[in-house]
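User: I've been trying to design a sequence by hand for this structure and keep getting stuck. Would you show me what you'd pick, starting by listing the structure so we're on the same page?

Assistant: Good idea, let's start from the same input. This is the structure you sent:
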């Protein structure tokens, strides 16, 4: 698969040190990073709204990369990837498929968060043979209740953050109680651990197009999720204002045999607030 690489290449175990790579397919150059031991089924990470490669929490990636080949990527039009962000989740799933096939994989595990979880659902339904295991966090199904309100909540919290000169993620991902505020600040700090070779930020236009795609998805016809037969782990906080927590319950109910973890006293970023509990649970699920 990666035959062109020297066998004695040191294994990178820290996301902060993962080199920036790129691969071209279908007229688009996709930016990505990889770490962890190669060989075996890779875990591909599908990132959230407005996010780039720099938005993954190292406290979740690093524990998974200990025994798994982990790959994070910028989909078309995001961060350092070329092209234009499509205005539908379905087209984003097609781009992700193009990227995965370009790397030469025919079986993957998926770790997804928020918008990434929507893209992942579509990819699994279109290409069931590609995916072995599925992790869906902070996300919801097509046509889910209040999914189309994500844009309004996002803009409101971005304004609140701007007024206090904070990172919008502190408002969008975490509760505004003492524990939530502390967790939010700690999370934003962890995202700064990588100092060299950081990703290009997402453009305003790309971000707005993603929001449009989410709105469309929220108003779309629900998919038949009973077709998802892969082992699936679903997780969220109990107070998700972006993608309402009830939608995680909805996914759990509709994906047969799925497992659900809800972290009390946390929001959209519950898995980041409780990374010390969630990372081992995710590892255990992928290893099973």
């Amino acid at each position: 698969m990666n035959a062109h690489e020297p066998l004695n290449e040191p294994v990178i175990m820290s996301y902060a040190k993962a080199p920036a790579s790129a691969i071209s397919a279908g007229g688009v150059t996709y930016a990505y990073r990889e770490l962890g031991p190669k060989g075996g089924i890779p875990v591909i990470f599908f990132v959230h709204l407005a996010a780039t490669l720099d938005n993954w929490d190292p406290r979740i990636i690093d524990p998974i990369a200990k025994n798994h080949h982990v790959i994070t990527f910028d989909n078309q039009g995001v961060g350092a990837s070329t092209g234009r962000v499509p205005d539908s989740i379905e087209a984003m799933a097609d781009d992700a498929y193009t990227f995965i096939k370009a790397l030469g994989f025919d079986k993957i595990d998926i770790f997804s968060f928020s918008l990434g979880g929507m893209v992942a659902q579509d990819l699994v339904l279109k290409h069931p043979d590609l995916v072995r295991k599925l992790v869906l966090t902070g996300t919801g199904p097509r046509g889910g209740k209040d999914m189309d309100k994500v844009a309004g909540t996002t803009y409101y919290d971005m304004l609140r953050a701007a007024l206090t000169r904070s990172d919008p993620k502190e408002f969008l991902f975490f509760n505004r109680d003492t524990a939530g505020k502390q967790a939010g600040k700690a999370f934003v700090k962890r995202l700064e651990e990588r100092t060299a070779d950081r990703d290009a930020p997402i453009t305003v236009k790309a971000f707005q197009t993603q929001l449009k795609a989410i709105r469309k998805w929220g108003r779309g016809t629900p998919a038949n999720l009973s077709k998802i037969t892969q082992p699936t782990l679903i997780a969220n906080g109990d107070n998700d204002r972006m993608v309402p927590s009830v939608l995680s319950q909805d996914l759990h109910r509709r994906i047969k045999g799925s497992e659900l973890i809800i972290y009390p006293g946390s929001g959209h970023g519950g898995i980041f607030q409780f990374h010390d509990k969630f990372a081992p649970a995710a590892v255990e699920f992928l290893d099973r």
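That's my pick for every position. To get oriented when you compare it with your attempt: The CA atoms of residues 182 and 273 lie 9 Å apart. The chain has a mean pLDDT of 95.
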